[in-house]
Amino acid sequence: MNIDDHIQLWDQAIVRVLDVRQRTLEQGESLSNYILPASSFVYIARGRGQLWLDESIHHADSFYVLHGGKGASLEIVAESTLEYYLILYRAVLPQNSLYDFQLLMQSDNPFEQPFGFLPNGGLELLDFVQKMYRDWSQPNKLDKLQVRGVFYQFVHRLLYQMQSNAEEMNQHSLAEQVLRFLSQNYQESKSIESLSSLLNYSPQHLSRKFKEQTGLSPIEFVTKLRIEKAQFLLMTTEASLQEIASNVGYSDLFYFNRMFKKHMGIAPGQFRNKHLARQGQSSNHAKNPLKKSIENHSSQTYIYNDNETHYQYNGEEDFTMNKGTKTVVFSTLWLCFAIMLSACSAGNDATTGTDSNRSGGKETSSSNSPSTNPSETPPSSETKTVSTQFGDVTIPVDPKRVASVDYLGTVIALGVEPLGSNNVLLNSPYLKGQLDGVEDIGESFEKLLEMKPDIIITHTTKPEVYEKYSKIAPTVSIASNKFNSVHEEMTYFGEVLSQEAEATEWLKQYDLQTAAAKEKIKGHVPEGSTFSVFQEYDGQVFAFGPKSGRGGRNIYQVLGLTAPAAIPQEIMEKVYSEISIEKLTEYAGDYIVLTSESSLEQLQQDPIWGSLKAVREGRIFLWNEERSWYRDPIALLAQTQELAQWIVDVSQKK
Questions:
Q1: Helix or strand holding residue 128 (H, E)
Q2: How far apart, in whole angstroms, are the C-alpha atoms of residue 356 and residue 434?
């Protein structure tokens, strides 16, 4: 076989994909004496077996590729559960091709050549094969047309590796395979657990080898790629921030902002403005989003999730991991990679503010409420049934080892010391001093498994993620926007954790203190005054209603203040809604609660924000997302007291 000649002939040929098939053989099953009706590739997606092509035997593991010509006899014997794909194609030279190519085809026809090998970068090839099968299965002819393009990509990668020195290919390390795959799929969400199972290594081994070579964990590597790509797009395109966030793998704009700022120390819009300023161009944070778009080539079929995508949210402040594909292999592969990233994109989708602090005004300390020490008390053998997002779930009557993946502030308010939670909630400013012994669960489910919880509390709405949790411990999952009030939330979890008395006492204190806050502002808010709750984000504006964080629930629900009548009811009924900046003058109340990185002076100098009476006269409460984002019971109480004091201070300045 002369690989250079083969490349020339592939380049000259007219190729048509005839069929893409998938089949799974259980251990001991076989495909006997199948005569290939056309030139064919056999790709082993998972498992192990013997492949016979005419009289030649190939011992094949996952990712093995076998090629045979029309009329060859194929037999497959499964030594374990074996999933394979069969790609049938026809390739001919055009009639007007050079005579040299026709002679070459007669002497060494690559489309009839039998060969088999284990290529490097098997995951990349698996991705191509899965895409071909998925598109071929669609009734739309346009989808089938796309199969041809993906087939050429598949062949290109095979020929590239065949052209490389075989010995050199075998020297590619495990980490290099993972690095290359992540570099080409950083926009998607995948999990280290499933990736490691496909490569037949433990997650610990794969992560360790990867970090030894790169100095980064897989999730850190993917995040780094995403942020670097976002920087490039911010500097070289006029795409909107939402388009850029989606393009690099973050479905949620707010979470993208948090991740970018965490790694760069500056919000993405500010980063762009600084770059434009260096080029001598002007920019204004109140301008409309830039017009020119970018095309997102990511399929967005999957979501990456470790610590990162675990905290992406879906527009209703539900940050969870994402979905898998139609086939068993990719369902597992991408689901677990969703466990590893998390989050991006998860983000998809940063967690919601459903969990936060315990400070904020609870006068009784954790010592006044029975606290659970998970290392001392064994779980009760008695069980009870609770209603969850996924139906009734049987849990221990008195769980001692609680993993609060979400709802951290709520669990702490009940006097329970959880085993662990996620990094975003552990960084809540409202929980400082109350998290001794609470561990960061980290970037995969492995650590959660090691904790051996009696119960897992989460707000995921994704069935595949819930199933993953449920394999570790009974899982109580409630969507983050499920509860209409603090009372509903505390009462529900008080029953789940058998802390009913603690919930009742906490709510009693909460009612006393929120009533005091309402009383405090009496006489300080002129009759008929209205309040607006906004977030200003790099030229975009979002309005928040009473179901939301950012102060919406505090202002409208707890303190009972009124929104401007001009704000449409459908906006107030949502968690948040993007509004046109031109609507600011119409939707702005007499008082404004604003999440922003801008200072009051900057807003007053802005032509649009500065035109608002509340901004001009200083009746604006400014805070950043690091404080406004949380909306668990403890955070809400602290925020309500802070907002009440602000209203009093504004009144006294008159």
A1: helix 122-136
A2: 10
Q: Where are the beta strands (DSSP E) in 560-608?
A: 576-579, 591-595
Q: Environment class of residue 394 by beta-carbon count within 10 Å: exposed (0-12), middle (13-18) or buried (19+)? A: exposed
- AA letter at 524: H
Chain position carrying tokens 């590893």: 340
pLDDT digits (tens, 9 = 90+) for 192-237: 665 666 666 667 777 777 777 677 777 888 888 889 889 989 988 8
Query: Which structural domains are found in the chain, ordered by start?
Result: 3-170 (2.60.120.10), 173-350 (1.10.10.60), 366-496 (3.40.50.1980), 531-653 (3.40.50.1980)
Q: Is 152 in a helix, a strand, or coil?
A: helix
Q: What is the pLDDT of residues 113-132, one digit of tens each?
A: 998 888 877 788 999 999 99
Instruction: Indicate yes or no: pTM above 0.90.
Output: no
pLDDT 10s digits, 369-419: 333 444 444 445 689 999 998 999 999 999 999 999 999 999 999 999 999
Q: In angstroms, rounded to a whole number, what is the distance separating the alpha carbons of residues 503 and 310?
A: 28
Q: If you write DSSP's letter for every residue of 348-373 in order, what string do you get? A: -----TT---S-TT--S-GGGSPPB-
pLDDT at 323 over 70: no
Distance CA 191, CA 255 (A): 19
> Which run of H or E residues covers position 455?
strand 455-458
